[in-house]
Every structure is written in C-alpha cells, then in structure tokens.
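During the reporting period the student researcher (J.K.) took over the structure-prediction task from the postdoctoral fellow and processed the backlog of single-chain submissions. One of the processed entries is reproduced below for the supervisory committee.
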Amino acid sequence: MSRGRAPRSVVVTAVVAAVVALSALVTVRLLREDEAGAQLRSDAAPSGAATTTIECGDAPCQLVSRTNVNGEQIELLADPQGGNGRFQAGTDVMRVTVSALGGRLDASSLNCVGGASPACLVLGRQNGAMIAQLVVNRAGTWWSVDKPYYSSAGVVRLDDVTGDAAPEVVVVQTSPVQVRVFALDGTALGCTRRYTSVEKIRGWPDVRLSASDLRACG
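J.K. obtained the following structure tokens:
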C-alpha cells in the first residue's frame, strides 16, 4: 500500500457515513415540512381566509361559510369573487355546480339540516334570483343531486313539509306565484295554491308549509 492513501475500506466507510448523515438531514427536514403542512391544514381558517390545500379556479380557495351537521364539519369554499365553489365535508371535496351556472356564493349560501337524513343546500345568488344545489348524505357519504333548483323569487330552503322527519326542498316561484316542494331524490311532491304576491305566502320570506298546503301542480 502506497503512503498517503487511505485504505479502501476506510474510504468506503467514510462515504457511507456521509450518505447516512445526509439522508438523516433530509428526513428530518421532510418530517418538519409535513408537520408544518398538517398544522396548516388542521388550523380552522376564519371566514374569508385562504385555504392551503384546495384551489378554486386559478386562486386559492377562501372560506365562505361553515356549519356542523351531526358532528361533521361542513365548509363552503370559493374564490375571492364568490365563484368556482367547492363543498367540503371532512376530506371529501366536490365542485359547486351553481357557481358554474353563474350563481355567486356568500356567507348565507350554506343551508344544512341534520338528523336521520342529513342534507345541505348550496345557494347561489343571481340578479335577485336563486340557484340551489342539493347535497345529501347517504350511508355516511355526501352526494350531489344533479338537478339544480331555481327560484325567481330568490328563496330555496330545506324544511320538513310532509312531517316524515326528512327535509324537503322548498322552492318559491313568481310565475305563477306559488311554492313547489320536492323530495330529496328530486321527486315533485306538490305545489301550493297560487298567490297574488309572494308576501301572501305564510311566513314569507321564511316560508313555512305543511302537507295540507300541497296539491297537484298545475
């Protein structure tokens, strides 16, 4: 062995030690980044604050509204203009169709009820009218019902009209002036009589109906 050159085994040992040390540093950094990211995701964002994990169009999502349904947190997210909405329940996220139809989301755009048949309405305002998207929970999973609901009077809400302990979708229209009621699966359950103005509807604008108010739509 020539003088001045370290034995091959010593060189290999030194290289391995350096690689192990570098891997440890990288692992520690990645763990710290993961912890920081988890902390950002777990922190409750105030209304209007940007989220860190979901994009709404070309901008980070902002929290529009938040509620609790049967112990589960529900959030409505959108871009800064109230468009490109997202509905988030736990880790499940779905696109808000009413914002794609031109409806704008605000702090009053999330209407949910709990109980045995949990459901939410996502409400998009459009020039005085209202477009609503129904999202229901079936066997622990949230599903969006394809059919949007449109109210020229600007009122769509959830209420137990038939008394079966499950909510129905209540839609007020102005031509003619009457209220239409739908089951959660989209089935039409009936309509009220026709009114001379929306102010004549009982409870307007917080419309309250009972099964006896319904008849065949005509």
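The committee noted the following: Helices lie at 8-42, 97-100.
J.K. will present the remaining backlog at the next meeting.
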